[in-house]
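#lab-general

N.A. 3:47 PM
ok so I finally got the sequence cleaned up, no stray characters, all 621 residues accounted for. can someone with queue access submit it? mine expired

B.Y. 3:52 PM
send it over

N.A. 3:53 PM
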Amino acid sequence: MGFFGTLRMAGLLAASLLVSAVEPAPAPPQGPSPAASSITAPLPAVALSHRAEHLFKALSKGDAEGVRAAQLEVEALRRTYSTLDVAPLVEAMALWAREQGMAGRPSLGLDGLQAVERWAPDHPTLLGARITLMRRQGVKGWLWSFPDLLRLTRQRIDRPEYRWLWLVQHLGMIRLTATLLLWGWALTMGLRYRNVLRHLWEEPLEHKGVSPLAAAALGALMLAGPVILGLDPMVAAILWLFLLAPFLHAAEVRVTAFVLLLQLVHPALAAFEPWAAREPQPSLLLLQLQPQVQPVQPAALHLLPPSDQAFLTGWNQLQNQDWKAAESTFQELVGRIPEQTAVLNNLAVAKFQQGDVAGAEKTFDAALAAGTKMEVLLNQSILAFNRLDTVLGASKRDDAQAAGPEAYTLLIALNDAQKDARTYPIPLPDTPERVQALVEATGGSKGSDIRFTDRAFLVALLLPVLGLLAFLARVRASVRMAYPTQCIRCGEPFHTTDSPDVEVCQKCHHLFVLRDGLHAENRRKKLDEVADHQQNTRWIHKTLIVLLPGCDLAFLGDTREGLIEFLPFCLAVGMILATGRSVRYPGEILADPTSTWLAVGAALVGLFYLRSWLKLILRRA
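B.Y. 4:20 PM
back already:
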């Protein structure tokens, strides 16, 4: 981040030097021409960014007066360019503040953000940088950053071009939760019924004379086949559950159906992804009101009507204070475009700035007759106060405030502490036709539409559905016959009709319940089988306790309790892996701060592991 900030500031400095390098030779004593002053004027974005350097120096020295002087410089510059957007200044300050935080001076970085907060209190870059710096101050900083986090989150949700990206990012935890739940459940069931699962292919191969080693290799190849073929690992998990369907208890069948249905969140979230990838549409208002780091290329405007292009030329002339050229441009637009109120208002602004107060007042009256606009009423108020007509000035000011309260507040804040009178131009508004012309001129698109016929989407949708249907069909077919199961004592596969106990084979029933019918040698052999199986079961159980909290309970048959413990664990892991990374939203230079869900998920994962590991301690005690 330090390198990025240095690179950006170096680029801005180079741009400023380039602008200075192309300045013409000194003008004759009578003064430079209007055209020359428009050419040599620095770009608003560059000028705003370089005002941040004065703030950096004053903040580093702790000079409060220097900070105030730098803020006044910014105020004067904003009035010069009539800009309400201070994005370059805020971005430069955010980069500098983050560098201070990385250097161990978060308080200094927060002071810098406070110095520019007056111009953009809810700027996303400023909010994100402040959250990051406050978190560097420890747990207290995390708590104090929540109000800013809520404001930033509200901005992401309120803006349509960012809403889907925010949803996809934060709902990704559910997608990962579903995946982990499927993999963990398939692994647990595979370990619980490991012997009877092998019985499915080893018994037929044994009758054909295949060696046990070859049968084991073929079984491993079959279970890992989908992954080896390059398919999604979810296919392998569904295959395992399909093979185990006849052996599962009723509670395990219900949980498996729930887990497979939960996989439908994958296509549901995939449907949101094209919306999240959409770039914000271009806007004429942003081109006029937002300082541009580089001048707008004519090729980006060539599909606009000639009258609109002329209006934008006149707007740039007003911003560059080339009043004579602006007057000529807007005079030619009178009667040529529908936005006559804006044309006449801007023509009056150019006249007023050249000292033609009477002509400006007459043109403002014509603009108001063409349509009521807050800027026109405010300009008339300024002219009335300028000739000391306080009654008319106050009346026009109140009318302007009623016509557009928010825009009025912004313009008054822009003119704060201004000593000389000024007037305000009106930008060309956005229309669907103008926005479409900008989209086509820049070669962009409005974004990809959701296509439900895409192969990836269909696979994600049909795979869990088909897997669930096949699983339920196999379960239903197994209910009508005596299916093989696994003895909980020795692990040997047997048919349910072979023993009065559906969970214990006939040999174990005679050995441990009836205690008859077994020869001493067979009894000793059976006890060794039981001991080996129970030893392996204990090791698997302990491993699941350590690695997968909740799966240990499902492994022993406590299905409901195991799901209740394993599901929140998967959700907590999803919080860390799916929402922990930062996301940079389109049009912004800095990524958002790390999601709070990462810290919440880490705390929950630690809590779940501690709770699970206590089972080992209590069992040992």
